Amino acid sequence: MKLLNLPNENISTKQLLGLMLLAYAFSFAIRLIWVYQFADYAPFHYNGELMINTNDGYFFASGAQEILFGLHEPNHRVPSWLNYGVTFFTVLLTKITPFSLETVTLYMPSIISSLVVIPMILIARLFGATLWGFFAALLGSIAWSYYNRTMTGYYDTDMFAAMAPMFVLYFFIASVRHFTLRSALYAALMIVIYPFLYDQGRAVVFAMSVIYFLYLLVYHRDEDNTYKSIILVSLSTLPVAWFISSPYSYIINALILVAVYLLLKKATIQKKTLYLLSALAVIGFLYFGNVFSLVLGKITYYLSRSVDAEGLHFFQVNQTIREAGTIPFSTMANRISGSTIGVIVSLIGYLLLVIRYRPFILALPLIGIGVFSLWGGLRFTVFAVPIAAMSAVYLFYVLANSSDKKPFRYGLIAVLTALMIYPNITHIIGYKVPTVFTQDEVKILKKLDDIASEKDYTLTWWDYGYPIWYYSDTNTLIDGGKHNHDNFIISKILNTTSQIQAANLARFAVEDYAKNGGIVSDRIFNDKNPNDLLEEMESEDFKLPKKTRDIFLYLPNRMLNIFPTVGLFSNIDLVTGQKGQQPFFYKADRFKDEGKMLYLGSGITLDKEKSILQIGSNKTQLKRFVQVGYDQKQKLQKNIQEVNPNGQISLIFMQSYGTFLVLDEAMYHSLFVQMFVLENYDKNLFEAVIMSPYAKVYKLKR
Fold first, then answer.
1. Cα–Cα distance between 409 and 413 in angstroms, integer?
2. pLDDT at residue number 613
3. 463-515: per-residue pLDDT in tens?
4. Nearest to residue 144, comparing CAs of 328, 340, 391?
């Protein structure tokens, strides 16, 4: 056991603060690499600042716009700045600092997420090994997954996701290490605040709380503080929000906790009474916190890969989200520790850490959820990063303990830590993620802002919903948070071969949503057979509700990359759940022209002399060849050659983009391809208002 002991490092408070500051500066500086890489790249800048690089960030930024600039009043899905910590602090920082909203949203992830070094170092200090925490903080603050979700520009609640639970873990460990009721109070206060910072992570801190209760009952069942601590932490889930709106509910709950803490500290309570009170508190914790349903619900959601089983059969969005899919062990390893060897080192280190210092059992939910990512998806790896870093560096301490020479020991630890950091730094340098939109795309949305009113709707795929709020101040039918079932409507509009059906469905859905809110599909398709309703919408005589606002279709070039996925949501019979035949659509950005043969990749070739396409082992006659491109005035020029009327596959060369599209008749005649790629549209139904190579915006006339 002696070999597993951490050294007793005599670090002063001043030195402690210096180490924290150094680790924080390192974390923040590493996050400036992305800024340096694109500092002079104009397409990623707007309004004098680099734009953010996560779609969901525009959800919270729109909430900040609402309170700062009075925008988005008719859009009830824009978040209140008092309901989300990230929006609250954004508004606060924009008001009290000289920085613009764009600058605050850009750098806030780096500022907040780098705070993770504080609990990591403080946890290590509880065991007299502050330098252990320092080395671990250098690794954990920039490790692959944590960096990806907290880098500069990744403006999202993820900046709080793993940082706040590490503070909870610190107070839990401090509570059992020094057995102080005050630490339990601080942990409870952090649990109260956590949903305000990162609502999706409640299951994590609740699981940590359950492990904390079990730990106390197993190892400290005879201590009064055990039951007092359980009472305090259990009260963190009081249903104050049922009666008082956020964030005031968090403040009231915090005040209640402080009052109970003072009462428990001063009052003399018999053990039987403590047992009863703590039991009731735990029952309340489990009930009001919906702990089991919350945890099981999260697990079920991320393991689900099917369409709806009851009622109408809608395609589920989590089937297409990469971060919600299963991942291989190597991916999990890379994202948690930077390499397969790194995560093995971390897991061995955690096992030894628990053997020597059992309070680290309290970190089991964080390690466990990281392993769960193998089935649940990428997003879960971030929670395991800080404790994995501490575990890896602890193993380095164990290996270094074989030497009595302090310089050698710490030199070895530093070298091994650097080797763990290296693949993560390499990843960061190569991780040149783009901004959500380019400057030219934003200019299109700002033009739309000038054309449209704030009560109007812009229909497009949900990926672009939040940026459309932010830049064009219009509403959307679906977005990054509201898409279940109504994705069918937008997918149908974009994929239908009947533009009259698209126009009717757009007006019908928007007017219903503007009037009733909620999920449109659950109303209009439950009132009538969906197939009959959609067929009726192909008629000019379909009865539409009164027009109360304008509707715009936003068709961006970038949607070509995901168009087959968009089509999945409407390629299904809502009544039976039967999926339709998968249309063929292939986009080739890399190709090789060798005279007689055109090689498009993925086993697709064109014999130009015979006009025969080979797709894998199948050969087919080319139906038509289309070439489109923009002239010097940015006007679309197109040349359509009908090759063989019996062919089933067409080839479109988008000359200005250097892109080929290989597609069947269903895809060729789809609204998106016709109106974006070919600019073919029914002028009785639509008006072209913005025509750009980057995106096209059409106004609905009906």
1. 6
2. 94
3. 999 999 999 999 999 999 997 799 999 999 999 999 999 999 999 999 999 99
4. 340
Coil, strand, or helix at residue 433? coil
Torsion, Cα of 654, 655, 660, 663 (10° steps): 30
What the chain holds in terms of domains, given with CATH numbers, is 2-430 (no CATH), 439-550+559-568 (3.40.1380.40), 585-700 (no CATH)
**Euclidean distance between CA atoms 535 and 583, whole angstroms:** 20
Whose CA is closest to 506, among 524, 518, 522?
Answer: 524
In degrees, to the nearest 5, what angle opens at C-alpha 304 toward C-alphas 481 and 463? 30
Taken as a whole, the chain contains a residue count of: 702
Q: How confident is the model at residue 694 (pLDDT cuts 50, 70, 90)?
A: very high
Element containing residue 45 per DSSP (H, E): strand 45-46
Cβ neighbours of 291 (radius 10 Å):
19
pTM: 0.92
Instruction: Render the burial of 496-519: b for 16+ CB within 10 Å, e for the rest.
Output: bbbbbbbbbbbbbbbbbbbeeeeb
* C-alpha distances out from residue 369 to 298, 319, 365, 387, 537, Å: 11, 20, 6, 12, 47
Q: In this structure, are residues 621 and 612 in contact, taking their beta carbons and an 8 Å threshold? A: yes
pLDDT value for 663:
96
Angle ∠(597,601,604) on CA atoms, nearest 5: 60
Q: Could you tell me how far CA 265 lies from the centroid of its own chain?
A: 42
Question: Which sign, positive or negative, has the C-alpha torsion 510, 511, 517, 521?
Answer: negative
Please state, as a whole number, how many other Cβ atoms lie within 10 Å of the Cβ of residue 422.
13
Q: Which two tokens stand for residue 11?
A: 């670090």
Supply the DSSP string of 658-678, one letter for each residue.
Answer: TEEEEEEHHHHTSHHIIIIIS
Q: Work out the pLDDT band at 266, boundaries 50, 70, 90.
A: confident
247 preceded by a cis bond (ω within 30 of 0): yes
272: exposed, middle or buried (C-beta count within 10 Å: 0-12, 13-18, 19+)? exposed
Q: How many CA atoms lie within 13 A of 633 on its CB side?
A: 2
